[in-house]
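Technical annex, item 7. During the second reporting period the consortium partners agreed on a shared format for inverse folding records so that results from different sites could be compared directly. Each record opens with the tokenized structure and is followed by the designed sequence. A conforming record, contributed by the partner at site C, is shown below for reference.
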């Protein structure tokens, strides 16, 4: 298969060569016509000069005279009958004489005729040098056309080749610098389109990667709870009914996360799904304290719930997920003898601890992925650095937000959700909303 550059070179050269050929052909025809006219004019001038000379001398002598290839004849008019169309009228043109094709110019004199003739072959020989010059010019033009065709083909193919190389790099998941805007408007537009595509692809890949990391992080929590309660149940440390309830709840949460992965695979969309349903934040606080109570006692941290019944619109599982992430972080950061409080205030869910706090310069970036991972102490195991980012994402998905306040006395995270509109019975349960892209 021939390359695009070869095709462009051949097509451009063929077009230019055809144009030159047509130009040469038209030029040859016009040159020959001009030469013919010049030859006829020269012959007519000779005839006019001889006729004028004869008239001025008044003496008319018949006879023939040879001037190179030109023959001048002065004879009585009947002598030229059959040679020219009308012996009684001056004329110019071509005729047959002495078995050859001749150019002629005929002038009338009193009772005589003056005929100047020249072989037509001389006329053809006169324009052949012009034809040779035209052919030489054509060869030079084809050479120049070949060079221009090559340069044009290369100027078009080179940006396309850069786009092809960059596309292969993207397909191999390699980083590639933005393409420069070079060449014609169309080629520059192609470079812009590729750069936009590369940027969007990078964002999409990063979003999917972050989403998978987030879900992987969230899978760890229910799996840990299921394993812990299963082991405790086997050792007789937990009430069977209570263990079964927790394992069932965590299993449902695990199923929900797996559905998110299936949604991502089916829809190619890196986002979580949330429901709109009535949720009691005080109930969420009590449930979280109950779930993490054993861990808190193990770490020597007091974990308590506070606040009265407070209903909001949101996804109960996702709110539990948010609270669980915040409490896990608080327990890791709070030293033994400290306190972690989960409370509800209106439409706000607050998780406060008495740990060392977050430095002021890190507070604005606390919810960035992995930002705080290397900035916390190592006295206790740390998470993956995704928990707070997931908290912010889920809060935003439910139409709310999250903020953090920290100082030497500890850290407080406040999750603000949408208050319940009307009564619980009026709330449309099961309405599905889509979160913002990761």
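Designed sequence (site C submission):
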């Amino acid at each position: 298969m021939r390359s695009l550059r070869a095709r462009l070179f051949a097509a451009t050269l063929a077009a230019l060569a055809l144009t030159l050929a047509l130009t040469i052909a038209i030029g040859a025809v016009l040159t020959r016509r001009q030469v013919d006219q010049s030859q006829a004019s020269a012959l007519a001038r000779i005839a006019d000069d001889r006729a004028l000379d004869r008239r001025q001398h008044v003496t008319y002598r018949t006879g023939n005279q040879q001037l190179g290839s030109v023959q001048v004849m002065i004879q009585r008019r009947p002598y030229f009958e059959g040679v020219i169309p009308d012996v009684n009228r001056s004329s110019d043109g071509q005729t047959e004489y002495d078995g050859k094709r001749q150019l002629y110019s005929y002038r009338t004199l009193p009772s005589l005729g003056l005929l100047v003739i020249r072989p037509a072959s001389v006329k053809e020989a006169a324009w052949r040098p012009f034809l040779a010059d035209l052919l030489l010019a054509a060869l030079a033009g084809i050479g120049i056309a070949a060079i221009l065709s090559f340069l044009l083909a290369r100027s078009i193919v080179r940006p396309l080749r850069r786009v092809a190389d960059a596309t292969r790099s993207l397909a191999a998941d390699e980083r590639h610098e933005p393409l420069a805007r070079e060449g014609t408007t169309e080629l520059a537009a192609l470079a812009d389109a590729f750069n936009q595509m590369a940027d969007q692809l990078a964002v999409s890949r990063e979003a999917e990667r972050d989403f998978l990391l987030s879900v992987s992080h969230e899978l760890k929590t229910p799996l840990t709870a299921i394993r812990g309660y299963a082991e405790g149940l086997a050792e007789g440390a937990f009430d069977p009914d209570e263990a079964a309830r927790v394992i069932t709840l965590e299993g449902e949460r695990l199923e929900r996360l797996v559905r998110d992965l299936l949604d991502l695979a089916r829809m190619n969309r890196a986002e979580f799904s949330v429901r709109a349903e009535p949720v009691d934040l005080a109930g969420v606080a009590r449930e979280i304290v109950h779930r993490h109570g054993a861990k808190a006692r193990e770490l020597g941290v007091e974990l308590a719930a506070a606040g009265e019944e407070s209903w909001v619109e949101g996804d109960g599982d996702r709110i539990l997920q948010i609270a669980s992430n915040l409490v896990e972080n608080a327990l890791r950061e709070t030293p033994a003898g400290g306190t972690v409080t989960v409370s509800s205030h209106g439409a706000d869910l607050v998780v406060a601890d008495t740990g060392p706090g977050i430095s002021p310069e890190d507070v604005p970036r606390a919810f960035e992925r992995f930002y705080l991972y290397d900035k916390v102490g190592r006295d206790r195991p740390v998470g993956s650095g995704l928990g707070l980012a997931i908290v912010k994402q889920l809060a935003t998905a439910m139409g709310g937000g999250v903020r953090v306040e920290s100082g030497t006395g500890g850290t407080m995270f406040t999750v603000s959700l949408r208050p319940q509109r009307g009564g619980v019975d009026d709330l449309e349960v099961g309405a599905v909303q889509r979160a913002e892209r990761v």
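The domain at 192-270 is CATH 1.10.287.130 (Helix Hairpins). Helices lie at 4-57, 120-171, 185-235, 240-267, 281-299, 316-333, 387-397. All partners now use this format for quarterly exchanges.
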